[in-house]
Amino acid sequence: MHPLQKHIEEVIVLTDDEFSHVLSHFTPQKKRKHQYLIQEDELVNKEYWVINGCLRSYFLDESGKEHTVQFAVENWWVTDYQAFEKQVKSQVYIDCLEDCELLYITHEDREKLSQEFHKMERFWAKKTKLGYIASQNRVLSLLKNTARERYELMSAQYPNIIQRVSKKMIASYLGVSRETLSRLYS
To answer: How many domains does the chain have?
Structure first.
């Protein structure tokens, strides 16, 4: 079974013919470590699904400091969603932290597929809700948990990511300095 079919079927059931139709709307893409999928101020027309690899979404503040918004690993979706949905310029960078194998779908194809195939509309609605819940939980954690609690939560939820990204990026994701993160390891 194709890995995307397995991923989709965690939410909806597809026949092989239905999946072939869905897959025909996706394009494979390979990127090397340190290549960008998206850079700030670009128009964004693609949503990516990660087959293999690890990526990071981040933005730069006025002083040039990086703030990590999201990591994306196998079976995760990633793009600048505001730019993708509203067809405006991106506010974030998405960088490949490892060599990546991806599938992407254009905004036009996703809309077309959702219109003609309501099962996929339900799939994306469910994924959007789950993404919103994860985002809300992250904001709540940033507001109410200590740095140690945020680190422990990330370690428990995403042990695969902790082992694959630099401590500097983990600190950026947790909203702490690299020095503070080092103290948490002690």
So the answer is: 1
